[in-house]
Amino acid sequence: MDQIPDEWARLTDSQLALFEKLCNAAGVSGDEGEVRALVLEQVRPLADEVKVDALGSVLVTRHARNTDPPLRVMLDAHLDEVGLLIVSDEDNGLYRFTKVGGIDDRALPGKMVKVGKDKTPGVIGAKAIHLTEPGETDNKIPLDTLRIDLGPGGKAKPGDRAVFATPFQQMGASFLCKAFDNRVGCLLLIELLRRAKDSAALDGLELLLSFSVQEEIGLRGARAAAYHFDPDLAIAFDSTPASDLPTFDEGEDGALEDAGYNVKLDGGPAIYLADAGTLADPRLARYVLQTAERAGIAYQIRQPGGGGTDAGAIHRVRAGVPAISISVPARYLHSAACLARRADTEATFALAWQLLIGLDRSVLEGER
Fold this sequence. Notes:
The protein is of the alpha+beta class. It is built from 7 helices and 19 strands. Strands 1, 2, 3, 10, 11, 12, 13, 16, 17, 18 and 19 form an 11-stranded mixed sheet that branches. Strands 4-5-8-7-6-9 form a 6-stranded antiparallel barrel. Strands 14-15 form a two-stranded antiparallel ribbon. Helix 1 crosses helix 3. The model has no long low-confidence stretch (mean pLDDT about 90).
């Protein structure tokens, strides 16, 4: 990948330490308190205004520093992660559960989890392969046959959330963790705010940061946040699945080629033109692409199709909000372990900063 021109985007040891805390924190949709506390600790010394709204999103304002009508720029990243919800106690440390967010049932059996505020360790149990009948394992294991097993001394109650127990770690050029989606966006917003605090380049921008709740179950927090902020434009930062494992198809010339990827690792930030919930504002799309090219930051276009980000809710609020999404690619999202590249993360941080320092009202004055 190309060299990143902005040295600030090289993640420091202190930034990586914060990232580890964010990724290891429990924040299943509807119970984001642990992640919210970490974010509040970071943003309060840096912001002009901080509030927690009725749904639990952290709303942060950094006021413009000049007297002209400022450009109101909303930056969004969601706090929550996919996980599990305890629904009943079946005695002897066994608990029935349901999913919160889009998790593949096939990925659940045998996974270690942490349950509730005390993070009680447990395992998702299923019938051992030795006890199955012929043909029984041909299909995925039904969710209602799985249980979280905390052992006879384990304590949980209906309503407790459970998260995967995978700790954050660096593996050479990669990050491995349970909640890269979307703690990487949370770190990005915190670091943008930190740098903006002392930057005259952003004096004409009213920065409106939304650390939104409940994205994984319907983009709920971002909708309320956008209504509160009433921005001129919005950028949603997230993570998107990298579909770059070797699934080869035969091309017209007979050669095998990987034609099925959406985005891939080592390709830089993924810029959205379209997804299941949003058509990116064409003015913002042009601005983002031109900025990346001028700065020499490698990028990739996320291929249209399913999925989406908080931009899907933000752009429909009030009279409409021009919006676009930028994501860091990662493999195995919504599973017990996500894998992403440090270089893609740093390139996304660099692009985000370049976008802010060049942003003014002229971006929205061009043709749609």
